[in-house]
Amino acid sequence: MKLKTLIGDYPVTKQFRTHADRFDFAQFQGSVATQFKRVVRNLEFDVAEMAIMTFLIAKAHGKPYRLMPFVVMARYQHPYLVCSKNKPLRPEELMGKRVGVRSYSVTTGAWVRHILAEDHHVDVSKIRWVTFEEAHVAEFVDPPNVERAPAGKELKSMLIAGELDAAILGDAKPDPDLQPVFASPEDAGREWGRKHGAIQLNHLVGVKNSVPRAVSDEIYDLLVKSKQAAGNPPALPHGLEANRRNLEVAIDCAHKQKLIPRRFSVEELFQ
User: Fold this and answer.
1) pLDDT at position 7
2) Beta bridge partners of 238
3) Co-location of 183 and 131 in the same domain
4) Model confidence over 178-233: pLDDT tens digits?
5) What separation in angstroms does the CA of 264 have from each of 168, 250, 257?
6) What is the pLDDT of residue 172?
7) Does residue 190 sit in the same domain as residue 83?
8) Distance, CA of 165 to CA of 146 (rounded, Å)
9) In the structure, how many helices (H) and strands (E) does the chain have?
10) For the chain, which end, N or C, has fewer CB atoms within 10 Å of the first or last residue's CB respectively?
11) 3 and 211 in contact (C-beta within 8 Å)?
12) Exposed e or buried b per residue across 71-102, where buried means at least 16 C-beta atoms within 10 angstroms of its C-beta
């Protein structure tokens, strides 16, 4: 029996994705992130790439997945909070403003709110968050300061039109109409990493609890070999101890924002 698998096409997963004899890889259009509802709502996949905040919220609601300490995507999120060049804003000026984000609980949004609160002393509950999708995990309830954008509206268009004061985008492609809210965002990201001794995790790999441990150990070994074939990039650490601090900070980020009701231990994520 092949394991139904959702894994994006990255350099570190390229070799892993050649194992069609053992895995039934999902075919999809666009970003793998558009498929996460299939993971945590339909419980469709035995092995699945998952955003860390989606995984933590799913764990809190009893979804039958455990984590593998294998990172397929990580990045500092400072460049992804943007505003119009015609109406520049500093982070401290966002309270009382309207900020758009695809969904309140998405990982990039959670990390940006963490940066605003921890490093810029912004009360993120006093920002009006405008969303365009519901959460990946159906049971998650948005806080009161979240509203849904009108049907047919688009995030970037609303920002340029002045209907939003700032927005959290999924990519940081150069745009002549937009600029980052955080000054020198790349430098700010590196400084955040030094300050916290961590990276900001995006996507890891999860496995359904029904998959035997011996099988998931084999899957992990295949992923590690695939990463080694890609040059073993250090920015994407693998292994529990190599990711312990990264996971501790991610758990803290989720708990402080009430995305999860309590702080998990790192070990719980793998159970």
Assistant:
1) 97
2) 70
3) yes
4) 999 999 999 999 999 999 999 999 999 999 999 999 999 999 999 999 999 999 99
5) 27, 10, 14
6) 78
7) yes
8) 15
9) 7, 11
10) N
11) yes
12) bbbbbbbbbbbbbbeeeebebeebeeebbbbb
Q: What is the distance between the alpha carbons of residues 130 and 97, in angstroms, rounded to a whole number?
A: 10
* CATH number, domain with residue 41: 3.40.190.10
Domain boundary among 177, 195, 213: 195
What the block records as the tokens of 175 is 């745009």
Q: What is the DSSP letter of 261?
A: S
Are residues 210 and 243 located together in one domain of the fold? yes
> Are residues 40 and 65 located together in one domain of the fold?
yes
Q: Which of 255, 201, 200, 231 lies closest to 68, judged by CA?
A: 201
Q: Are the C-beta atoms of 158 and 130 separated by less than 8 Å?
A: yes
Q: What's this model's pTM, rounded to 2 decimal places?
A: 0.96
- The SS3 call for residue 33 is helix
Enclosing domain of residue 29: 3-75+200-270
Q: Are residues 91 and 189 in the same domain?
A: yes
Counting the structural domains of the chain, the total is: 2
- Domain endpoint, select from 195, 214, 232: 195
Under 8 Å CB-to-CB from 194, ≥6 apart: which residues?
Answer: none
